[in-house]
Amino acid sequence: MSDMEKKSSAANVEVGSAADVDEVLKKYDRESNTRIWEGKPKLVIRWLMVFFSLYSIYVTLFSTAMRQIRLMNFLGMILVIGYLNFPAKKGTQKVNHMPWYDILIMAVGAFGFFYASIHGAELANLRPKFIRGDMFLLVIACLSILAMMELCRRSVGVPILIVVGILLVYTFVTVDPTKVIYDQFYATSGIMNTPIDVCAKYIVVFLIFGAFLERTGISTFFIDLANSIAGATAGGPAKVAVISSGLCGMVSGSSVGNTVTTGSVTIPMMKKTGYQSEFAGAVEAAASTGGQIMPPIMGAAAFLMAEYMGVSYAEVAYRALLPAILYFVGIYIAVHLEAKKLGLKGIPKDQLPKFSVLIRKIYLLFPLVLLVVLVSTNTRSMQFSASVAIVATILVGLFNKDDRITFTKIIDALESGAKGTISVAVACAMAGIVAGCVTSTGLASKMITAIVSVANGHAMIALVLTMLCCIVLGMGVPTTATYCIMAATCAPILVSPEIGIPVISAHFFVFYFGIVADITPPVALAAYAGSAIAKSSPMKTAFTATRLAIAGFIVPYICALSPAMLLIDAGPAEVVMIVITSLIGIFGVAAGLSGFVYKKMNPLMRALIVVGGITLLIPGTMTDVIGFVMVGGVILLQRLGAKKQAAA
């Protein structure tokens, strides 16, 4: 019996088994559909992945090689481990089987990257006209790009590939084909563009750090900590899911992975308490998705944001703090009101872990605290800070006698970090091609002209169109890829003089909507993972998760139209007022969508409190006054009505 099934039996509720979850993820999530290796082949591939992680850490810390050499080696190794992990088709895989055509594609594609690395210095100094007659260089470049695109189809999905394919065709038609091949493969304006450079320098080390942190038992610590804080309150298990999933998601950076990890514990608890299956799965999915916007780690895309905006990573984390708090407060309020509406109780205190006992394990947070201090103070580079944090994680893990880190866990972490890098690196490579096509064809200016003409100077119309692009592209596509493409295509439109959105606000806007795509129907991977555990309808779970995470759909607009929400040009007094009004505003929106504060609301009351909540979220004295009156008025009427109802 699996761990998940044991938890299900203990809770005496029906939840999905590990096999159910695996089946759903293999159907919808490309990253979950991998080859099955056993015996010696598994051992060889395992150590190959470990070597890749160690090599990546070494290169990012000590290598002085030129960019082309470093990135071509990185891409070549990604191609090799990628094909060793991802098969051509979904579904059940044969054990220790890799067809000859996969071996051929892997070998030919990797050869092009490694050849370009070996001859990097001389190839970097060439120009398109010098390789025009060199068919060998043209062919290996095309084959390597096609091999990487095929790996993208396997590990990331088709949507991003469609975007890349259309742009490549358009570029080949409008630009000299030889120049296109040169720019996309041998220059740093294509596949070696900013995204893959950031991935090789920063993201891979932070992914490995996250894998190490998970093996210290920090997820169990977060769940126990959340239980001790909120477990005994009304509907406690749902609040535990919100707190623990936010903390664990901050570390893992994967909404789907975190839903499966913490959901196996929290979803049965929620169902046992009395929450409906769809609600239980949705709470976990919405909270796990929000982990990617929670500082200090914020998933891989935050590093790219810092690079694109030309600011420090610490500033990105600082700007993201208030929106992240509002997101989780919104979900927390929604589950609290749902518990009150259903009359649900919490977990008996004698069944909860003692807070005093948990304090003894507070040292597990030391690597995270160390990382935050090193990064925020700019003491050393980000990759050095992450490497120091990895060492600290190993040392801390040695003191955790309940879940002590071992040599096997260290190898597991290095292997897991390498595997997690594959899809992110492939997505970054594709995003580089998109950026290269947009730049070489001048498509960015044409898109700006087109969108501006449609929007007719109205920022709201441009924001809505951008939101739709983010959600559609983000369906089944990693957040990193979605952000990179939107940063190259839509963010320049938003910051154009005609639209006038500040640079930081524009990038946060596309970042947030790329993330909430994980819970937005029709392809909501995190919600589907939650529904598999909760044994609920996937589509109903996705719609419920969207309702719970409503702050994730409102706050980005506020950030774009009023940068003070991102603490830009805001003094201390203004920041305090923004925090207070925003929290009350989120309460109003959550209450209206829930339809309950002290008693059930009629449609008019629900509409009034939602509108009042939204006006409070918009910084400004007039909107704050209107919002206070509307939200306060509805709450007062609810209170009086509940008293009359009780007296009757």
From TrEMBL:
The chain crosses the membrane at residues 43-65, 71-88, 100-118, 130-149, 156-175, 195-213, 279-304, 316-337, 358-376, 382-399, 420-441, 461-494, 506-528, 548-568, 575-598, 604-637. Residues 144-572 form the TRAP C4-dicarboxylate transport system permease DctM subunit domain. The keyword Aminoacyl-tRNA synthetase does not apply. Pfam families: DctM (PF06808). The keyword Transferase does not apply. Keywords: Membrane, Transmembrane, Transmembrane helix. NCBIfam families: TRAP_fused. This is TRAP transporter permease.
